[in-house]
Design a protein that fits this description.
The chain has a seven-stranded mixed beta sheet with strand order 3-2-1-4-5-7-6, sandwiched between helices. Strand 2 (about 45-50), helix 3 and strand 3 (about 70-75) form a beta-alpha-beta unit. Helices cover about 40% and strands about 15% of the residues. Helix 1 (about 10-15) packs across helix 2 (about 30-40), helix 7 (about 145-155) packs across helix 8 (about 160-170) and helix 7 (about 145-155) crosses helix 10. The chain is an alpha/beta fold. The chain has two domains: about 10-100 and about 210-300, Vaccinia Virus protein VP39 (Rossmann fold); about 110-205, Putative methyltransferase TM0872, insert domain (DNA polymerase, domain 1), CATH 1.10.150.170. The two termini are about 40 Å apart. It has 13 helices and seven strands.
Length: about 300
């Protein structure tokens, strides 16, 4: 499948790339958004592209090869942004984009184990350097721990039954084995495969996705220069809630913070929300790329 960067025009409009600007794509993927940013900040703007996935970085290097030394690509998490900027000698940047979650490329590579549509090893790691795979979790956690993951990260109401079925069916080494164990105890729901939420929950847990988002947002704001913008695309409610709450909190003046002494320092707002309601894909984009349908874009500007 051809890589289609989600909300492409909206990201370029949000970040307003300009000549001599410096930008970060913290989830560079195949390089779709990064290419647009580099084109718009010609002739001398630069971009730092980060991704945990070496397969994605290989594609990004091909995509961004025409930009030469203006593109800096590193296999690393966006949580390491301060260290990566220091390595380049960058003190601040003009714009940052984070396109969270799973990419089409990862989903369409059966051997990565992200999809129950193909029989493959239970992997689900964004980075091969991650010592914990989905197989590690399903075969070592106890029933309570598994149920907690399924409820917390998959919002799976049948998490307890599924966790019990997983423990009973162990060892599970492939996506097909896991999906079949779930199908035995959970009926198909309104066209949604009963394993959908379980696979989502395991993927989030394996890659510590929600914790990474929460850790990265303050670092991203610190990295921005005044007037710089942070644009975040999320694909499910758990991610979007973290981004929304952070943007709201950072865009308010804090006067007499609760549960602190009266002499505690008051805090001025550091962000301005550009859009209070998330931007979503057009009907035309969803028709061209159905996986974009759940995308939500939130943009904030540093004061």
């Amino acid at each position: 499948m051809k890589h289609l960067p989600v909300l492409y025009q909206e990201i370029i409009h949000a970040l307003r790339p300009h000549a001599s600007g410096r930008y970060v794509d913290g989830t560079v993927g195949a390089g779709g958004h990064a290419r647009g940013i580099l084109e718009a900040c010609a002739p001398d703007g630069e971009l730092l592209g980060l991704d945990l996935d070496p397969q994605a970085l290989a594609l990004a290097r091909e995509t961004l090869a025409p930009f030469g030394a203006r593109a800096h690509l590193v296999q690393a998490s966006y949580t390491s942004l301060p260290e990566q900027m220091k390595r380049l000698g960058w003190e601040a940047v003009d714009g940052i984009v984070l396109d969270l979650g799973l990419s089409s490329m990862q989903l369409d590579t059966p051997e990565r184990g992200f999809s129950f549509q193909h029989d493959a090893p239970l992997d689900m790691r964004f980075s091969p350097l991650n010592p914990t795979s989905a197989a590690t979790l399903v075969n070592t956690l106890d029933e309570d721990e598994l149920a907690d993951i399924l409820y917390r990260y998959g919002e799976e109401s049948d998490g307890r039954r599924i966790a019990r079925a997983i423990v009973h069916a162990r060892p599970l080494q492939t996506t097909r084995q896991l999906a079949e164990a779930i199908e035995k105890v959970i009926p198909r729901r309104k066209g949604i495969h009963p394993a959908t939420r379980t696979f989502q929950a395991l993927r989030i847990a394996v890659n510590e996705e929600l914790a990474s988002v929460a850790e990265a947002l303050p670092k991203a704001v610190t990295a921005l220069r005044s007037g710089g913008r942070l644009a975040v695309i999320s694909f499910h409610s758990l991610e979007d809630r973290i981004v929304k709450d952070f943007f709201r909190e950072q865009s308010r003046d804090l006067v007499n913070p609760p549960y602190t002494p009266i002499y505690a320092e008051e805090r001025k707002a550091v962000l301005k929300e550009i859009n209070r309601k998330p931007i979503t894909p057009s009907d035309e984009e969803i028709e061209a790329n159905p996986r974009a349908r759940s995308a939500k874009l939130r943009i904030a500007e540093k004061l």
